[in-house]
Amino acid sequence: MVDFEAEFSDWYAANSRRVSSSVLGALLDPEIAEECTAEAFARAWLHWHKVRKMDSPVGWVFIVAVNHARTLYRRKSRAEQVAAKLQPLPDISAAEDYDEALWHAVSSLSPQARKAVALRYIADFSEAEVAQALGVTRGTVAQTLHRARTQLAKVLNSDSVKEL
Amino acid sequence: MNESLLAERLQAAINARTPTLEQVRVRAGVIRSRRRVRRIAVAAIAACVVAVAGVATLPVLGDRPIASADAAAFLTRMANQSRTVQSGATWFIREVQIYGDETTVRDMWVSPTNVRSIGTEQGTGLWYDLTSKTSIFSAGNADLSWAEVSNLPTTAGDLGKFLIDHATGDGTPEMRLFTLAGDCLRTLPLSPEVTAAMFEVLATIPGVTVDQAFTDVLGRRTAAVRLGDQGFLIDSDSSMYLGEYALDENGSTGFARATVFSGWLNSMADTPSDLTPLTPTVARSTNLWQVNVN
Questions:
Q1: Which of A108, B75, B121, B201 has its CA 20 to 30 A from that of B47?
Q2: With an 8 Å Cβ cutoff, are A97 and B31 in contact?
């Protein structure tokens, strides 16, 4: 018999960090990202007997987290949403390695492009895996990522562009 | 733009707070409770609908679909058949457990009216006083006392509620309920009425299917009642419980038990002597329930 608990613990230890960072990269809201990541992992644990058999459990958790964020935002009043948008990102900017230019550049991307960028460059997914997780074709992913990189280059200051 | 540098810079810049495994587990418990409250609400609404429309349904799992039509019909037939089985003073099971290369035989008697005891080997086994409040019967993740076992509800609705309350542990609610109900049939001295109600509860679990031509590890043709990668076996002629199995990751049988006999006897002296070609020579095990086969 499979020891689901031990298997889930190992999988969690190996993947929790990159999932959390990918969700934050897609949502750009540390508080919501943390909340949604915890919710998604909890659901993964509850359904582990099914999730473990999926091609990409990490992709599943990412999508559940992002969808949960959508639900949370929907619940928020319009005023709260506006206020939330006006707020800075205190947790990130307080960090020693805060890269303001990059953060600003990523926030200028569309939600779908951010998801693709987060999965491809933070979670280290291949383009095919990103396509599967987002439910689009590989060509669409390649195009989305290309546009995202172009846009990032435009938004970032000239020094940052040279660095990249 | 260089992709690897972008990835490096993004990964360095975006360091999210990661919930601990413990936080995830606590949250899973909250989600489970939330779902349970939702189920209770749905069941209450369903009960109102039943009361108004006069439709007879079992509100065991609320608003979800029941077992497959074949399985529901089969389990209902087994329920009706169980009601015709004679009860007795002593309940006896002999089962063969196969797990990898290891084979063990377990015998168990329960004699509530005569000796009020339960043991692994007639006359010499370890015995329990059934009148104590100790929970000596195990099924699923539940430990039950004799008082609970002997007073199990005889209607599917009430039995379903009891089982849902005791179906704790991991997995989906359906799987937990299925495992507990199957274990009850396997290991508890159930009256014919409770056995019948147990089959009716099983018929309300969504996703349950039946394969009426399943060959078990002893080569017997049985009916396999299944949910996911687990199942238990029934003799479709007598409704006697015949064993259980679980599939491993590769889809082959990773674990199996074959019940050679399960049922009520008039007395312990009536224990059949020719149940199986396996002749267990008893070596006392630290596990109360297992008698090794040499």
A1: B75
A2: no
